[in-house]
Amino acid sequence: MLKNDIFLRALLKQPVEYTPVWIMRQAGRYLPEYRAIRQKAGSFMSLCKNKTLACEVALQPLQRFNLDAAILFSDILTIPDAMGLGLHFETGEGPIFRYPVRDIKAVRSLEIPDSEDALSYVTDAVSLIKKTLNGSVPLIGFSGSPWTLATYMVEGKSTKEFKLIKGLMYNEPETVHLLLEKLAAAVTDYLNAQIRHGADVVQIFDTWGGILTPEAYREFSLQYMERIIKGLIRQREGREIPVILFTKNSGLWLEAIVKAGATTVGLDWTINMADARRRIGDKVSLQGNMDPCLLYASPTRIRQEVKKILHDFSDGGKIKTGHVFNLGHGVHPGVNPDNVCAMVDAVHEFSQ
Hints:
Helix content is 46%, strand content 11%. By secondary structure, the protein is α/β, with parallel strands linked by helices. The strands form three sheets. Strands 1-4-5-8-9-10-11 form a seven-stranded parallel sheet. Strands 2-3 form a two-stranded antiparallel ribbon. Helix 14 (299-313) links the parallel strand 10 and strand 11. The mean pLDDT is 96.
């Protein structure tokens, strides 16, 4: 039995006393206690693969802030790593794959990992975090979307141009579709494993869907996320399992995203919350959407923005369910934790 289930109730558009809040990347480099654990672990992946340390890091933000949900501490690239692509992280470079996937032969050779085996360090972390939370707040599991995972697997690293994945998509669409089919199957298995081990909610991070044209987004990103959502466990132990779908820069395709079957649609800061509600009504709940850079502003300015976003979602300034407050993307490493506290407290204060 959850002691604080307001996050779940908001996702499901059930009555709430206030607007719940959690933060994408709420455990991370902006917290000094995280940096200490990261140094102790020796490397980022060593931290991810140590369930005890991953659990400790996942709980750190809840010890500082009055958050309404915890999220698994892991990385979106665990699936490609389990496929044998040799994931490692280099200072100043981010994630790098030793064996990128750039032709049909390489795609055909990929095997879909068994999440209970190849990714057991993730499911073990889910189990431990869930146990340690002891019902205080819900636990969010997550995965990257097939398209987002594919961009890293083809490019071999972070990029601003996406020339290799887009070149392959335009020249050999059948190769990319085969890769996305395999990734969709892997993500479905991965998220279901997290649910079986205790995740109360799952989120699909489609970080790079927004780089596509409207037609390409539907063909290469959205349809595969819809396939995943249809394959997910949606009821467990008498409780509905909500699904959050988040595509960065998704405002142009909001109506299409709503039809994909997710419980909740995450919004980045490029769309106004009131406009989003006018376009889709109450078809799904919404999550978001303060600009992460506002956390560099003063607490007074942060409180103003929180009030505006809450008002934009509300009816005449009155609290309305179906909204989870969040940033429009992850919190930046240089943010002062005191400003995060100001945001979280403002959400609870103004929404009551």
